[in-house]
Design brief:
Rossmann fold; 4-stranded parallel β-sheet; 20 strands; alpha/beta; 21% strand; 346 residues; single chain; 25% helix; binds aspartic acid
Length: 346
């Protein structure tokens, strides 16, 4: 490429955009458009950086589908004019957000890298600089005039992950994220090393970017625990207008076998509510029918979430519900990898 890559930094909020007021000790948001002043090192990167910031940056605990749409619209509006995107959000819900963005774009041909930090950018020991600088380098990386990354990634503490495979696992250590069921896409040491064979290969013949923003949020996560009562399950499954349930089961997809429980699930599946089985375990997969405790779930037509994370199950459910599919098609597409978020065979 003749010109320097053009990278758009999208700042939505979170710790990364804060500085410590050394007089008062309090953290406050700073004007992100002045990022180049805060991190002069950015000027040494071989790219042109532009920034765009939410008018009122948010803590990522306040993130929701309306904000997903706002982020995705910024990317869509600037897609032609930029070579890559680095999106800064708080780390708390970054896996949910980045995962949702991965579904909202089909045929993505440019990198969208999410990052943030555990310490504010103005802190002496901050992890923000490395996370931000390397994310920009990743967004700039090209081979044969094509971006190396053509999917939504999440970079934190020397590792680039497929965003829809991540979970925030630590509120203290700089290594805040893990991707238990899929190896890192790249690792940053002395060199930036890409695991090319693990990168998302877009199989579509038609490479036009498709943007979808109809997300349906009438869903619930039902996490099983020993002793869960009929009263509680009944109340949850009878939520008005409920369209989807993510059932967090034990181990390889196991649940209590009591008749009342199976009947309640069967009833709502027959009413057209989509029910997905995901495991509470951080790693590994649902294997329906492996134990007797999951054969009934299989019989009543529960969707097999295999090794998808709960965060990504939420995002994928919101996305697929917005597509108005038949129950059969919903199951088919949920169980099929669309953006590399679920393994096709275990
Ligand atoms: N509470 C912050 C947030 O998620 C933490 C962070 O930025 O990492 O917005």
């Amino acid at each position: 490429m003749a010109n320097k890559p053009k990278i758009l930094l999208v700042y939505t909020g979170g710790t990364i955009g804060m500085i410590k007021d050394y007089k008062t000790g309090a953290l406050r948001a700073f004007d992100f458009n002045q990022i180049q002043e805060k991190i002069p090192e950015l000027q040494h990167l071989d790219c042109d950086i532009s920034t765009i910031s939410f008018e009122s940056p948010i803590d990522s605990s306040n993130m929701n589908p309306a904000y997903y749409v706002k982020i995705a619209e910024i990317i869509e509006e600037n897609y032609i004019n930029f070579d890559g995107f680095v999106v800064l959000t708080g780390s708390d819900t970054m896996s949910y957000t980045s995962s949702a963005i991965s579904f909202m774009f089909e045929n993505l041909q440019k990198p969208v890298i999410f990052t943030g930090s555990q310490l504010p950018i103005g802190d002496l020991r901050t992890d923000a600089k490395e996370n931000l600088i390397t994310s920009i380098e990743i967004a700039c990386a090209r081979v044969n005039n094509k971006p190396v990354i053509r999917e939504v990634g999440l970079y934190f503490e020397y590792k680039l992950y497929r965003a829809n495979r991540t979970t925030k696992i630590n509120a203290e250590q700089f290594e805040a994220f893990a991707s238990m069921n899929y190896p890192p896409l790249a690792e940053s040491g002395v060199h930036l090393h890409f695991n090319h064979h693990l990168l998302f290969q877009n199989e579509a013949k038609e490479n036009q970017l498709i943007f979808r923003k109809n997300l349906i949020d009438d869903i619930v996560i039902l996490k099983l625990f020993p002793g869960i009562t009929k009263k509680v399950v009944e109340a949850i499954l009878n939520i008005d207008n409920l369209k989807g349930v993510i059932l967090e089961t034990y181990g390889s997809g196991n649940a209590l076998t009591e008749t009342w429980f199976i009947n309640l699930l069967e009833e709502i599946i027959q009413k057209g509510v989509e029910v997905v089985n995901v495991t509470q375990c951080a790693g590994g997969s649902v294997i329906l029918g492996l134990y007797e405790t999951s054969t009934d779930l299989k019989r009543i037509g529960i969707i097999n979430g295999r090794d998808i994370t709960t965060e990504t199950a939420v995002a994928k459910m919101m996305y697929l519900l917005g597509e108005n599919l038949s129950q059969e098609d919903f199951k088919y597409y949920f169980e099929k990898p669309l953006r590399g978020e679920i393994s096709s065979e275990i």
